[in-house]
Amino acid sequence: MAQVLLKDVKKIYDNSFVAVRDINLNVNDKEFIVIVGPSGCGKTTILRMIAGLEEITEGTVVISDRVVNDIPPKDRNIAMVFQNYALYPHMTVFQNMAFSLKLRKYPKAEIKKRVKEAAEMLSIGDQLNKKPKALSGGQRQRVALGRAIVRNPAAFLFDEPLSNLDAKLRVTTRAELKALHHRLKTTSIYVTHDQAEAMTLGDRICVMYNGVIQQVAPPMEVYDKPVNRFVAGFLGTPPMNFFEGRLRLKDNKISFVLSDGTAIVLKAANSFKPYIDKEMVLGVRPEHLTVEQLASQADNGIRSTVNVVEPLGDRKDVYLTSSSGLKFIVNLDPHIAVDVDQQVTMYVDISKAHVFEPGETGKNVTLAG
Description:
This protein is α+β, with helices and mostly antiparallel strands. It contains eight helices and 20 strands. It has helices at residues 43-51, 93-103, 108-121, 137-149, 167-184, 195-201, 219-224, 229-234, and strands at residues 4-12, 18-27, 32-36, 58-63, 66-67, 78-81, 155-159, 187-192, 204-209, 212-217, 241-250, 253-258, 263-265, 279-284, 289-290, 301-311, 316-322, 327-332, 343-348, 354-356. A six-stranded mixed sheet has the order 6-7-8-3-9-10, with helices on both faces. Strand 16 (301-311) and strand 17 (316-322) form a beta hairpin. Helix 2 crosses helix 3 and helix 2 (93-103) runs parallel beside helix 4 (137-149).
């Protein structure tokens, strides 16, 4: 088992491109942490620096209290599971899983024992004599996992391991991965751009953007209390709605006034006072807007026209345009009747609303209150 620590880590390529900057991340022993972000944000670069496949420009990587900056990958006691499985096509499943142990000259009996145990754990015990081409994508991924498990490493590194699987298989394999971690309790660092994987797998989520860590916290904390607009918009399907406007103070009440003059009365917060009369952004998740007026919503209604209705079984996604032309999405109970071109009023649950500074990664000023 291992703690993995990154201190002030930076990666600059020869063309002066800064891939990651000032990365400080502490992955606790036995923790499963997911690094999530859009393509090109630097998450895979971090994983490769931990593995030793990329040189570190600045900073320190520590695994099990040992600085590993100058230690070759084979001596770091980590196992990496790749997106493309990286199996040897001419070898059987058994040979693929046993390969790293043979290189380390483990006794044959020990190799057989470890491979059999890992294969049974992954439900591929009856596939050991087959070659990769005879396996399904899900089975190949299990072989790749098994090859990592038999090494009994200090930490697992996962580089988007489920991205080549179909949607249904991704869901089942995701659950199996979580159960596997619960059983093995090996420190795991998992990279993905899939927010569903991040939310369901991680003990904590590390959200990245443009080579910088934006927020590290448990999944629901990141979802409910995003530190900035980028994090708020990146997590959630459909994504959070953003409305531009200004904060106003009247009769000791703070409101967010949209461009059409609609005023959304907010919960009082001292953190709003420096932003009175300034342009800001209101963020509301689709599930925090409803056609039913609740006590907590006061008169916070946005008059809108229904454009599209998408029944999804457990919910109904409704796309709307406000009277001033603002487009947004709401999640409704599937049994609430709404039709295209219908005029409706959508009410904001102010207890769940967020106010951000303007800009792509504007600070969430609601949290300070």
